[in-house]
Design brief:
Elements lengths: L2 H14 L1 H4 L1 H7 L7 E6 L6 H4 L7 E6 L15 H12 L4 E7 L3 H8 L11 H7 L3 H10 L5 H19 L3 H8 L4 E8 L4 E6 L4 E4 L1
Parallel strand pairs: 1-2, 1-3, 3-4
Antiparallel strand pairs: 4-5, 5-6
Amino acid sequence: MPYLTQLIEGYRRFRATDWKHQHERWAELAEGQSPNVMILSCADSRVDPSQIFDARPGEIFVARNIAGLAPPYETTGGYHGVSAALEFAVTQLEVAEIVVMGHGLCGGCAAALTGKFDDSEPGEGHFIADWVGMLHEARDKVRARHAELDLDAYTDMEWEAVKVSLANLRTFPWIADRERAGKLKLHGAHFSIAEGRLYMLDEAEGEFRPV
């Protein structure tokens, strides 16, 4: 069966069940959105924030990219898709919280840790390497802590990536200002695919703990 046909069949199930049962909710959303939380997560097909958090339509504003990274604040030329999403969520929707959610077995973090695409050409991994290059300093720390690049090292890299993103978020003036004023809270999270378990970051201690 063609993949598009499968998607259309899924849409028809959605129309017959979820949309029908939540018709009033969808009618409200037709007038606009007002989510309280933004989630920055990986584009990995196994990690869907709406499913993990059992969220209703309109409850969370989600931006997804390779490794779920937040870049540092930059005003140089170019296309800043993640920064635009952050700006919209914080300054226009005025979300109260941002959650940066990494996950287990993350290919982007693995690429950062191993340097697999470091010398690749466009179309062969160049864009991936360029994007996860913001993790180079964290990668060096992880490599120094692990004699072998085993599963623990990869998990450590995924945790460090969340911490890097949180630090980068605080370089955005309008995020930092709101956090200082108590109008915005930042959180780090990690979803273990193997366990089906969510871990939250205790920033004071730098540790991820299950919830």
